[in-house]
Amino acid sequence: MCTSSQIIGSLLVLSVLEIGLGLSSVAVGAVTFARVRTRTDPPPQLGDSSPVWSGACFLICGVCGIFCAKKKSGLIMILFSACCICGLIGGILNIQFLRALTKRSSLHLASLSLACIGICGCTISTWLTCRLASYEQRRMFLEREHSLHHSHEMTEKVNEQGVVATLKV
């Protein structure tokens, strides 16, 4: 079973990967869109700018992943999971829009590859976040149980001392 530090380390690595994929996808999408806008032969199509949007989703997912790894609160884990799901949706839509394009180039192949890697990263990040949430929930339960057990022992000691004090009087 993975420890919390291994899960956090994996989340950090995946988050940095998602940031890199997001920046790369935005750059490839911007270059593709600039090329399409300069030529007039085929008109711009819907999928020409989709790598920019999926890249933005991957970028946001990566930033939230770093926050999640640094501060393991429940709300940030939920936010990160939601961002990963948005990254999944953005990547899937990017692939669908790129598949519909009539004229394909090497930039479209790069966009498809980045989207596939981003989708895999978002899926693994979501799974790791669920594992981290489960680990943190178990840790908090054990801390609470230990705290209750300790307070119960202290109550018994006070009662024993109270009984002893009444016997001496």
TrEMBL record:
It comes from the Eukaryota. Its main location: cytoplasm. Keywords: Cytoplasm, Membrane, Signal, Transmembrane, Transmembrane helix. GO terms for cellular component: cytoplasm; membrane. It is found in: Cytoplasm; Membrane. It is a multi-pass membrane protein. The keyword Oxidoreductase does not apply. InterPro entries: TMEM196. Residues 1-22 form the signal peptide. The chain crosses the membrane at residues 53-69, 76-97, 109-130. This is Transmembrane protein 196. It comes from Eleutherodactylus coqui.
